[in-house]
Amino acid sequence: MRPVTATAAAVTTLLGIGAAAFAAGRYASDAALKATPERPVPGEPRLTVHATGPGRITLTRSLASLRPGVYGLAGTGVHAVVGPVLEDVPHAADTVVRRLESVGHGSLDIGTKVRFTPRLHSGTPSSLGIDHEDVEVHGELGPLPAWFVPGPRSTWIIAVHGLGATREHVLNLMPFLAGRRVPVLAVSYRGDRGAPRPPDGLCHLGDSEWRDLDAAIRYAVRAGAERVIVHGWSVGAAMALHAAANSAVRDRIAGLVLDSPVLDWEATLRALATARHTPSVLLPLAVRAAQGRTGLHGDRLLEAADPDGLGVPTLIFHGPDDRIAPWAPARELAARRPDLVSLHTVTEAPHAAMWNADPARYEEALRRFLTPLI
Question: What pTM does this model have?
Answer without folding.
Answer: 0.88
